[in-house]
Amino acid sequence: MNKHLIIAGAFCATIFSSCNQKENIKSIIVKNNLDFERSHETVELTKSFLNVEDLNTIGIKNAETGTLQVTQTVDTDGDGNMDEILFQPKVEANSETTYQIVTITEAEKPKAEALCYSRFVPERTDDYTWENNKVAFRVYGPVAQKMVEDGVKGGTLSSGVDAWLKKVEYPIINNWYKKNSERPGAYHEPSPEGLDNFHVGSSRGVGGIAVKEDTTYHLSKNYTKWRTITTGPIRTSFYLEYESWDAGEKRIKESKVISLDLGSNLSKFTTHIEGTDAISAGLTLHEKDGKVTGNKENGWVSYWQPHADSEIGTAIVAEKGTFLGYETYDTEAIDLSNAYAELKVKNNTVVYYAGFAWKEAAQYPTPEAWESYLTKFAKQINNPLKVSLKN
């Protein structure tokens, strides 16, 4: 009799424990309030939001399908501890999807190629270059600036952003620099992967900034410090710092974090700036044979132009309240004609997105397709996915 009671008690305890475990499983609900599916937007979950001590053992599982999601942990402040975990949910139009927060081992984590990549490039002066599965970019450092100032051939004096025209989804940065080190100028020649034939010079390229005073646009010089924050399957991000610079009577202090997520044609620029309440983010007009268009309500400006034997569209996008308007600045000075988005600085910070679509990559091959993408992107950043935690 007592034996049977003990067995029954143990059985009930097991069931009770199992029920408690199920009740204690944390879930997050990701809600999409827009009328189209969203699948290439990155959700950031912090340790404090999830109420966990260690993100390295965290997995995210689709509650309906049981599929573990590809994730990426990020040490945002460089202290050696992971501060947030990233993933890209798929949520149908006007609906929500539930994901369970589970504990997994390293071996159980879904494998994915690190398509979002960036690095400092000492073998090509001191470029900093970044890419994902759609686009690639680079900016120029202090050595390249000093070469110009000293009259040494091969330098670049510019805080503009270069566009690397890739048309494959796999990483190309290391391959292109390797080819260039073996045969200088090799990446300027067409290949099945694309080429670098986008001229920046002292222009703003694709998203470099200026500060306007009266009718004059003042520019910073090359970055002076860099730090890689993360690379991986979902995001690459890095920090850049600039020497303080003058914009007329204003003294400007500038640094920024640039990030690029999987599936996006636009890099995110989170710029910390002191000395001004507005900046202008620019798009080079090159030969001025393209067309500037914009939509103040949706918060974007675009420049679609002929480019060699193809075409290319560039753009700036920002949230409502940040995007104040746009204008075309046309001058006879070499490389200084740009289309500018005027952006509001809030608490010494301004956030905007800049990028491009090359016709040869067949992503957005017409200006109409490109502008449709920009409008959709603007809707997404103005209506971010809603994430709530459920125990």
| Average of per-residue pLDDT values | 93
Number of strands: 26
Spatial extent as radius of gyration = 24 Å
Strand residue percentage: 35-45%
The low-confidence parts are 1-23
Number of domains: 2
Main sheet record: 9 strands, antiparallel
State the end-to-end CA separation: 39 Å
CATH topology call of the largest domain: Beta-galactosidase, Chain A, domain 5
- Which CATH architecture of the largest domain is right? Distorted Sandwich
Helicity, as a percent range: 10-25%
Description:
The chain is α+β, with helices and mostly antiparallel strands and 391 residues long. The chain has two domains: 25-110, Immunoglobulin-like (Sandwich); 117-382, Beta-galactosidase, Chain A, domain 5 (Distorted Sandwich). The protein has five helices and 26 strands. The chain has helices at residues 2-24, 47-50, 142-149, 173-182, 367-382; strands at residues 26-32, 43-46, 58-62, 72-74, 84-87, 95-103, 117-121, 127-131, 136-139, 162-166, 194-195, 206-213, 216-219, 223-230, 235-242, 245-247, 250-261, 266-274, 278-284, 291-295, 300-307, 310-317, 323-329, 338-344, 349-358, 386-390. Strands 14, 15, 16, 17, 18, 20, 21, 22 and 25 form a nine-stranded antiparallel beta sheet that branches. Strand 12 (206-213) and strand 13 form a beta hairpin. The longest helix has 23 residues, at 2-24. The protein is globular, with a radius of gyration of 24 Å.
